[in-house]
Amino acid sequence: MTNETIKHQLNHRTIRAFKPTNLSAEQLNTLYSVASHTPTSMFMQQMSIMHITDPDKRAAIREISKQPYVGANGDLFILLVDLYRNQQIRQQKGQG
């Protein structure tokens, strides 16, 4: 079985050579807005976004990951599945 979507996915390659520029405030706001509006089964985004800007933390993450491109250039984001966040929201609303 094949179609254009499958061909595209099978031919996809990732180049991990990032430019040494950071996203603008407008680009960051767009990214965060899109992430918060991404559909889920109950429109409850169970994730948090960490934007790592501290050079020492970026270097530590790069070392731990054993991937030299991680945090070397540009912005570094870590997306976390965060069920605790939604638990806290429910408790604050008296539903937990």
Number of domains: 1
Query: Could you tell me the radius of gyration in angstroms?
Result: 18 Å
Level-2 CATH architecture: 3-Layer(aba) Sandwich
- With helices defined by DSSP (H or I, 4 residues minimum), what is the helix count? 4
CATH superfamily: NADH Oxidase
Helix-strand makeup class: alpha+beta
| Percentage of β-strand residues | 5-15%
Number of strands: 2
Overall 3D shape: extended
Q: Roughly what is the average pLDDT, rounded to an integer?
A: 87
Q: Please write the CATH class name.
A: Alpha Beta
N-to-C order of helices and strands: HHEHEH
Describe the structure.
This protein has a single domain, classed as 3-Layer(aba) Sandwich (NADH Oxidase). Strands 1-2 form a two-stranded antiparallel ribbon. It contains 4 helices and 2 strands; from the N terminus they run ααβαβα. The longest helix has 13 residues. With 96 residues, the chain is α+β, with helices and mostly antiparallel strands. The protein is extended, with a radius of gyration of 18 Å.
Topology at a glance:
Blueprint: H1 4-10, H2 25-37, E1 47-52, H3 55-65, E2 76-81, H4 83-92
Antiparallel strand pairs: 1-2
Condensed summary:
This protein has 96 residues and is of the alpha+beta class. The protein is built from four helices and two strands. It has helices spanning 4-10, 25-37, 55-65, 83-92; strands spanning 47-52, 76-81.
